[in-house]
Design brief:
Elements: E1 25-28, E2 31-35, E3 46-48, H1 51-57, E4 61-64, E5 83-85, E6 89-91, E7 97-100, E8 124-125, E9 128-131, E10 137-138, H2 142-146, H3 153-157, E11 163-167, E12 177-181, E13 187-189, H4 198-202, E14 227-230, E15 238-245, H5 255-264, H6 269-274, H7 281-292, H8 296-308, H9 319-332, E16 344-348, H10 358-366, E17 367-386, E18 404-405, E19 414-429, H11 431-438, H12 441-456, H13 460-467, H14 473-492, E20 500-505, E21 520-527, H15 536-540, H16 545-556, H17 603-606, H18 616-628
Parallel strand pairs: 4-19
Antiparallel strand pairs: 1-2, 2-5, 3-4, 6-7, 6-8, 7-11, 9-10, 9-14, 11-12, 12-13, 15-17, 16-17, 17-18, 17-19, 19-21, 20-21
């Protein structure tokens, strides 16, 4: 393996998960790099604790890229993740000479420069690369592309890699860009390079490699058709992330219960629990007992009780619900959990009095609980990524791109993650009113149409991890409410919309499940600094600010600049998974939404002529009050 020189560039710690996590491309001042897999992470990576998320993802734990103090980067050894220069084909913007860059040409803190030009301008990366549905990414073989339409024996036999990337003034667009051999003058323009099978027709197969692999790494045998895409295209990288909020132990636990939770939360517990009867079981038991300060017999008894109750536990396929159930219990009953340094919640209210306006009374009847989270800790982990198409599941035969692990050589024992601290507002809607509304035939029929599109979508498996086995009207309505809540809070609280995130608690459960129904949303913001955020959301969650914010968001949800096209839509976005929702009224930045801006519909929120929205009475009362307040001549 060629030695990698110590070339330093800066990225934020949170960016090592999204958007510049393993497999992601980052552009820095005209340079282009790709993040290598976690084998390149130094041993100094900091451990991040999140037992619930570790059990869900079946890993021993998480690690976070260490932070280099400001101004100290030049005096410390490399401890951050490795980023590899990609694409390796570069060209000079002056002389148009193309160069296949090698690591031994790197100079510390220097950009690649042209050696032929006197001014030594910085070399620019080629715009197009190739990817495939199996997750591989590589440079396009530009020498072969330039000679793919060779004329004459000399051009067909040419093996020289001296290429030029030239422009022709008599053409425009991609036709004006040509890759030309500097020796035999064979060349080909880039017209049609984005066509689906153009690389296969040119004889350019997928090499089955990733840019960070060394010469000693064995390439995969890949039969997927490679596709030429622009380096910055949105389909180059689809990260697969998971997140969990740190929930402390329930208040009032007995000493035995606290010790049990300590054992189960140990990072080696998943391995020990699955290693029953194996030679390593006794060693794991001894380590857990020693670090948790309990007898080995106690650890064995916990495993036996866990095995006896496995039938009543949620299945691995329902593991997302495992996280939501504990979070829902903590937010809906904040008195049941102890405050800690990472989790502090308290009940609040809308502050509506009996003599307030009718719209406020209707809103108060629709909202059953308000909880302010003064401090929360969230862990976000990167499991892997896909390319060209988003992944629809872990099955290799499923539609969409194949999931590539953050460790491309073996099963990942740990995952890269980042912990963030922040604040938020939790709102629960009245379950009795919601159940009555969901039983309306028009609401059920409307939701059933959305579910038919969901069933036909390649994203169905991923989305059902959040919505549950059946799509309930409450999920679409509350998801839409969360989006409008974020948009309104971005005006009222001072936070940028992209810095706010949602968690929707409205999953359906399997028949016969004893889990309580969920009906709420949690809007929060989090920052990588341990001090957390500024308190703007907490202020907006207190009376009378919250009630006014909710009324304003419901009023603004009634109209969209794209109406009537948006309001009357029978299918929008990818796979028709949205109805009355577009960028002008409902959609949010990708960092905000946990299900890719899907399953949204203003109709179920505020209603229309045929379908009553859950908050229709609130909106109608507000409109009547506004009309009554107008002074007529």
């Amino acid at each position: 393996m060629k030695a990698v020189k110590d070339i330093r560039r800066k990225v934020r710690r949170s960016q090592t998960i999204v958007p510049f996590g393993v497999g992601g491309i980052v552009d820095l001042r005209g340079e282009s790099f790709v993040a290598a897999d976690i084998r390149s992470w130094a041993a100094a990576a900091e451990r991040v604790e999140s037992p619930r998320l570790a059990r869900k993802l079946r890993v021993t734990g998480f690690r976070s890229a260490p932070v280099i103090p400001s101004g100290k980067a030049a005096y410390t050894t490399r401890v951050g993740p490795l980023y590899v220069r990609f694409p390796k084909w570069l060209f000079c913007p002056h002389c148009r000479e193309m160069q296949l860059w090698r690591p031994d040409r790197e100079l510390r803190d220097k950009q690649p420069a042209c050696r032929r030009c006197a001014a030594k301008p910085q070399l620019a990366p080629m715009r197009f690369i190739q990817v495939c549905r199996a997750g591989h990414m590589a440079d396009i073989d530009w020498r072969r592309w330039a000679h793919s339409r060779s004329e004459g024996h000399a051009q067909r036999q040419c093996q020289i890699r001296r290429l030029r990337f030239v422009t022709t003034p008599e053409s425009f667009g991609l036709e004006a860009l040509r890759v030309v051999c500097a020796v035999c003058r064979a060349g080909r323009n880039l017209a049609g390079i984005s066509q689906k099978n153009i690389l296969k027709q040119t004889g350019l197969p997928c090499p089955g490699t990733h840019p960070w692999q060394s010469e000693t790494d064995e390439a995969d045998t890949c039969e997927e058709t490679p596709q030429a895409v622009q380096r910055g295209a949105s389909n180059v990288y689809f990260p697969i992330t998971h997140s969990a909020i740190d929930i402390p132990a329930p208040a009032g636990l007995s000493e035995d219960d606290e010790l049990t939770q300590r054992v189960v939360n140990h990072f080696l517990w998943p391995n020990f629990n699955s290693a029953n009867g194996s030679p390593i079981s006794d060693s794991l038991k001894e380590v857990i007992a020693d670090q948790c300060d309990v007898p080995k017999e106690f650890v064995e008894n916990v495993r036996r009780r866990h095995a006896d109750g496995a039938a009543s536990m949620p299945s691995a396929a329902d593991s997302d619900n495992d996280l939501s159930i504990a979070e829902w219990a903590a937010f809906s009953l904040p008195e049941s959990v102890m405050d800690s340094e990472t989790f502090s919640v308290r009940r609040s209210h809308l502050g509506i009095d009996p003599d307030d306006l009718g719209s406020m009374q209707e809103l108060d009847a629709s909202i059953s609980a308000v909880v302010i989270a003064d401090r929360v800790r969230e862990v976000r982990a990167l499991e892997g990524f896909s390319r060209y198409e988003p992944s629809s599941g872990d099955d290799e035969e499923s539609e969409g791109g194949r999931v590539v692990s953050v460790n491309t050589q073996s099963r990942a024992q740990w995952l890269p993650a980042v912990e963030t601290y922040g604040e938020g507002i939790f709102i629960a809607v009245d379950e009795e009113r919601l159940s009555t509304w969901e039983r309306l035939q028009s609401v059920r029929n409307w939701t059933r149409r959305i579910e038919r599109d969901l069933n036909a979508s390649y994203k169905a498996d991923r989305l059902r991890e959040k919505s549950g086995p059946h799509l309930l009207p409450r999920f679409v309505m509350l998801h839409t409410l969360a989006h409008h809540f974020i948009r309104q809070l971005s005006y009222d609280s001072g936070y940028n919309a992209a810095s706010l995130r949602e968690r929707v608690y409205a999953q359906s459960h399997a028949p016969g499940s004893e889990f309580p129904p969920q009906a709420g949303v949690f809007i929060y913001t989090a920052a990588g600094d341990a001090e957390g955020t500024l308190g703007g959301l907490v202020r907006q969650g207190q009376p009378p600010n919250l009630a006014e914010t909710l009324i304003r968001l419901l009023e603004s949800a009634q109209w969209c600049s794209q109406d009537p096209l948006c309001a009357d839509s029978t299918g929008r976005s990818l796979a028709n998974l949205n109805r009355a929702a577009c960028h002008a009224c409902t959609l949010l930045p990708e960092t905000c939404c946990e299900i890719d801006n899907s399953l949204l519909d203003r109709t179920l929120l505020i209603g229309d002529g045929d379908v009553p929205g859950f908050f229709r009475r609130v909106v109608q009362a507000a409109l009547q009050e506004s009309a009554g307040a107008v002074d007529l001549p």
